[in-house]
């Protein structure tokens, strides 16, 4: 996309919500494909609103799990969030979010993992009540309910791999990519739940009222993500 987004028409730039780290880093090439560069980095700047080379687009930096909230309430017109985060959000706060594009970034798997040597299959067969530590309580609840496995879910906000090592849980539900974190902590995948990637998420009202501004960006993201699939 070579022409600037037309901010003069609506009076306000389009706001894109990103989290710093891998989502910001992996979204940059997609923006680049849309002819947009971001000169400041959230790793070095403390600014939470970053301008872009296009006066019609600004970026806000929020926690990964807060991206759907900013977009749902219209504080951002669109954002990038993992399917893991979106699924948790939508179960608790349905409506208002449109997920038009799988960006094919942030690829990993949501899995059940347990200490090497823990006989998960046998525990499930016996009908044992398992203690599961996770950040993804809703996804875990649905997964184990569908299998008819009784679980006590323990909500954590990070470093789930620690929980079975110190007796907080029997197993965890967490994201796995290379498997390096599990290996380093003597854990192993005992079950795959779902493939994860990051999605573009758009405020449904903005899609109606600012469609002509948003569409070129959506088209550019769609082309770039298909090219990298
Ligand atoms: N190891 C990984 N490989 C690929 N993608 C991943 C990996 N870990 C997480 N992701 C994806 O990237 C998204 C953002 O992860 P990130 O680690 O940047 O945030 P976070 O620390 O999980 O979020 P928060 O700050 O809200 O707790 C996740 O929601 C997931 O979709
Ligand atoms: O299989 P691997 O390649 O080792 O990746 C898996 C790890 O990646 C994620 O953590 P992240 O690196 O995002 O750390 P954080 O959750 O503490 O931000 C996830 O929660 C795992 O711990």
TrEMBL record:
Q: Where is the ATP phosphoribosyltransferase catalytic domain?
A: 63-221
The family note in this entry says: Belongs to the ATP phosphoribosyltransferase family. Short subfamily.
InterPro entries hit by this protein: ATP_PRibTrfase_cat (IPR013820), ATP_PRibTrfase_CS (IPR018198), ATP_PRibTrfase_HisG (IPR001348), ATP_PRibTrfase_HisG_short (IPR024893)
Record-listed E.C. numbers: 2.4.2.17
Q: Give compartment(s).
A: Cytoplasm
Instruction: Tell me the domain comment.
Output: Lacks the C-terminal regulatory region which is replaced by HisZ.
**Example of a GO biological process term:** L-histidine biosynthetic process
Q: What terms describe the molecular function in GO for this protein?
A: ATP binding; ATP phosphoribosyltransferase activity
Q: Which PANTHER family match?
A: ATP PHOSPHORIBOSYLTRANSFERASE (PTHR21403:SF8), ATP PHOSPHORIBOSYLTRANSFERASE ATP-PRTASE (PTHR21403)
Question: Chief localization class?
Answer: cytoplasm
Kindly provide the name given to this protein in its UniProt entry. ATP phosphoribosyltransferase
What is the annotated role of this protein in its UniProt record? Catalyzes the condensation of ATP and 5-phosphoribose 1-diphosphate to form N'-(5'-phosphoribosyl)-ATP (PR-ATP). Has a crucial role in the pathway because the rate of histidine biosynthesis seems to be controlled primarily by regulation of HisG enzymatic activity.
Organism whose genome encodes this protein: Pigmentiphaga aceris
A GO term from the CC aspect: cytoplasm
One Pfam assignment: HisG
CDD domains, from UniProt? PBP2_HisGs (cd13595)
- What is this enzyme's catalytic activity, as reactions? 1-(5-phospho-beta-D-ribosyl)-ATP + diphosphate = 5-phospho-alpha-D-ribose 1-diphosphate + ATP
Q: Keywords assigned by UniProt?
A: Amino-acid biosynthesis, ATP-binding, Cytoplasm, Glycosyltransferase, Histidine biosynthesis, Nucleotide-binding, Transferase
How is this protein organized at the quaternary level?
Heteromultimer composed of HisG and HisZ subunits.
Q: Give the pathway listed in the UniProt entry for this protein.
A: Amino-acid biosynthesis; L-histidine biosynthesis; L-histidine from 5-phospho-alpha-D-ribose 1-diphosphate: step 1/9
Q: Does the keyword NAD apply?
A: no
Domain of life from the UniProt record: Bacteria
